[in-house]
Design brief:
The complex is a heterodimer of chains A (271) and B (267). Chain A starts with a helix and ends in a 7-residue tail after the last helix. The longest helix of chain A is centred in the N-terminal third of the chain and has 34 residues. Chain A is mainly alpha-helical and 271 residues long. Chain B is α/β, with parallel strands linked by helices. Helices cover 35% and strands 30% of the residues of chain B. Chain B has a 6-stranded mixed sheet, sandwiched between helices. In chain B, strands 2-1-4-5 form a 4-stranded antiparallel sheet. A two-stranded antiparallel sheet of chain B has the order 11-12. The longest helix of chain B has 18 residues. Chain B is globular and about 50 Å long. The N and C termini of chain B lie far apart (41 Å). The chains are: A mainly alpha (271), B alpha/beta (267). At the A-B interface, helix 1, helix 4 and helix 9 of A face helix 3 of B.
Chain lengths: 271, 267
Amino acid sequence: MEAVMRQTWAFMFRGYHITRRYIGWVIVFNFYALVTSATVALIGVAEGNYQLTLTLIVGALLWNYLSRLYEEISMSIAYERWEGTLEYTFMAPVSRAVHLLGVSLFSLLNSIVSSVIVLLGLMLFTNLHLRDANLFGVLAVSTVAFVGLGLFAAVFPVMSAERGAEATHIFQGSLLLVSGVYYSIETLPRWLQPLSVFSPATYTLSACRKLFGVGNPDSTAEHLAGAPLSAVSHELLVLALMGAILLPLGLLVFVRIEAWAKQTGKLKRTG
Amino acid sequence: MQQPAIEVRNLRKSFRKRAGFRKKSELLAVNDVSFYVMPGETYGLLGPNGSGKSSLIRILSTLLIADSGNVRLLDFTLPEQAEEVRRIIGRVSVDAAFYKKLSARENLLYTALLYGQKAREAEKRVMRILDELGMEGTKFSTPLEEMSRGMQQKISIARALMINPPLLLLDEPTTGLDPKSRRDVQSFLEDLQSREGTTILLTTHDMAEAERLCARIGFLAHGKLVAEGTAAELIQRSGASTLDDAFIKLTGEELVEEEGEMELVED
């Protein structure tokens, strides 16, 4: 057990030191995330429509969190391929579950820190108050589903060093398109709307907007009329189900693809 | 009779490669290779680029799954007992793959944790190994990207040895090193072998290195093990005067070094 904890810690230790060494880029990425979110939120401010502002803020904030979480996990394998260290990780006597748990825990911490920065920044740009919003339960449940999605996407760089990273971003872009991050699902072309059902972000956003009081005429800049947690039980149930399926399935797919890569010689360092 | 530490029998590995639109060709990287390495022995696999040396090492390192054949490392077979094999092998590859922005210390501590070791104990062991490899302790906190190739390769050797593996798989560990670093690494391996009794499988295309370090040598060409024995046996069998000439005579091929790259030239 002690050894497993050290192995899990290894990935967090690695992530921390890489972040420290690339601190310049970390600041740039967080600055860019903050500015992008603020720019989107200011569209609502310019319209003088608090409901619209709130819709955009929730979208920007959650998308920043979920996409960062997804990207950190899915790209962790791509980074290892670029550095050429993936073979050494796969050669170590560490189970894939522990490997991906360590990667996911660091990604989770990183995403939370980034989201807090964006949130604090948004408070400077808008008159956002969170005291009446009850979104932490939903975030916790949606995190599991997004970690599962990240694990799924992490297999792409195992399959191909060159094409893998591209595929993870295409997948991420598709989630942004169909999940109703900045607009309602109904805005999408009718043929595209059914895809939103399969994205965990759709349910996370829907639940968080209800909890923030988006769409509730009683919500004002001074007071958010957020719904109670019981009002989003449907979303919570769907997210819990998605997490329960995606997490083990993501791990299983990863292990299968790793075996395939070892059979076909795809692990060899490239890029 | 003592059981070999490494036993490879009838090993085959082929890769499918795309050759133009919708066409696929098959490349036989390892072709029915059999050999063994006794405990505490250093066995050398010699061959030019593309002869199958790295594929063989990668199969033994659990990074590649063979098409057919048997591999046994100490008491474990591959690919069935890959998890157990990972605990008993250390590998050094031709390219010292590290997180280049991280320091040597951070890279090595990461590896120690990955193997479930206590960081402090691992650090002590690494410092001793680096000291033996002729590296000053002050370099330990320098990012890898600021280190020379020779230094990186020494760190790579320390990484492989910090888990104290009974089997060491060295894939061209001295390729591209300057003469001093090459000598440091070779002396260290000699000391290690005599002191710890570590079983070493070494691939190289450096004949002098093979002659110096290896008790027995196997010649690989086009994925086939075409001859094996001690350096003296191979020279005698071929009627040549040097190991270089013995390689040419026994394999029908020549090793040509061009801009640091070894290439295969058919006779």
